[in-house]
DNA sequence: GCCAACGTTGGC
DNA sequence: GCCAACGTTGGC
């Protein structure tokens, strides 16, 4: 199983919105970046991801699961863009802030740190463990 | 609110 | 195919 990170600006689409969608989940649409799209194409059913709030909060706030593999993005007619569907699994006991991530040596190589603008990104097994650790939440 | 970094677009 | 111009993102 692979791990990922989904970034969202909470005023546009936040963790609470994601939770409200329940088991059905929701399209992670609106991505207009090739790198991010390519990662979504690689995602498999059951892959897990972190849900990250950008801007004001800058924290990982929860865990999501891929519940539909890549398909055309329903918010555009442009067939270049695809997306997966994700559903909320559980919230973090404690949100893990970007500051914490930056100061933890285990996470120094995270894409979140290296390329802060990429909105969908891969997370390694070790990074997954480390962040769940910091969030006092089971992986 | 500013601005640096990055990605995309379009003229040549 | 290059690169300047532009738009957007997101940390600070």
Question: What's the topology here?
Answer:
Blueprint: E1 3-8, H1 15-20, E2 26-27, H2 34-42, E3 48-53, E4 59-72, E5 82-97, H3 98-103, H4 111-114, E6 120-123, H5 125-134
Parallel strand pairs: 1-3
Antiparallel strand pairs: 1-6, 2-5, 3-4, 4-5
The chain binds a DNA duplex (12 and 12 nucleotides) through residues 7, 9, 32-35, 54-55, 58, 98, 115-119.
Domain EVE: 2-133
Protein name: Ubiquinol-cytochrome C reductase
Organism: Sulfitobacter mediterraneus
Structure, explained:
The chain has 5 helices and 6 strands, in the order βαβαβββααβα. The chain starts with a strand and ends in a 5-residue tail after the last helix. The chain has a single domain (3-134), classed as ph1033 like fold (Roll), CATH 3.10.590.10. It has a 6-stranded mixed sheet. It has helices at 15-20, 34-42, 98-103, 111-114, 125-134, and strands at 3-8, 26-27, 48-53, 59-72, 82-97, 120-123.
